[in-house]
């Protein structure tokens, strides 16, 4: 899902924009000025948006049989556990890439036809979440980069 990403069900483009602005560190007052609405309108809208983010992340986890361990609606991340895979899984929602699922590195990225696509998406995820990656980080496989990114975004997830 690159440019022209479809809007996740239940969201409007404006809601995703508000959510993205807040996630990027904009205050409610700043978002209100930018969108030419009151701060109270933004605050009210954020409550509904957070509920939609949680519902989107949780429904994705349920569909993938992932047990929810941690969820952060402001950052759009869910940390879960896949009993099928026997390991942690991160589910994300982003304004650029919609819903994505990230499994821990399994040593087989080089065999995957989606290597380039995954690389592009995880670099977007890092940029969108304000995670600076070194040149050395960017040379790793996407699953390894994902672990670096999400260990900086999810409290308690070791690097």
Q: What kind of sheet is the major sheet?
A: 4 strands, antiparallel
Strand order of the largest sheet: 1-2-3-4
Q: Structural class, please? A: alpha+beta
Residues in helix, % = 40-55%
Task: Report, as a whole number of angstroms, the end-to-end distance.
Answer: 27 Å
Question: Taking all residues together, what is the mean pLDDT?
Answer: 88
Strand elements, count: 4
Rg, alpha carbons = 16 Å
SSE topology string: HHHEEEEHHH
Instruction: Identify the overall geometry.
Output: globular
Tally of separate helices: 6
Fraction of residues in β-strands: 15-25%
Number of domains: 1
Residue runs with pLDDT of under 50 for 5 or more positions: none
């Amino acid at each position: 899902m690159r440019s022209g990403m479809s809007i996740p069900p239940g969201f409007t483009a404006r809601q995703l924009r508000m959510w993205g602005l807040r996630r990027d560190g904009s205050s409610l007052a700043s978002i209100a000025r930018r969108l030419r609405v009151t701060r109270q309108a933004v605050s009210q809208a954020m409550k509904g948006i957070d509920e939609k983010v949680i519902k989107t992340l949780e429904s994705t986890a349920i569909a993938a049989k992932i047990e929810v361990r941690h969820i952060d609606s402001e950052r759009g991340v869910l940390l879960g556990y896949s009993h099928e895979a026997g390991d942690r899984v991160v589910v994300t929602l982003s304004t650029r890439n919609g819903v994505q699922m990230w499994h821990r590195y399994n040593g087989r990225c080089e065999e995957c036809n989606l290597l380039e696509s995954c690389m592009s998406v995880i670099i977007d995820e890092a940029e969108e979440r304000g995670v600076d990656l070194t040149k050395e980080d960017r040379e790793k496989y996407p699953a390894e980069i994902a672990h670096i990114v999400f260990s900086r975004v999810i409290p308690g997830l070791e690097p």
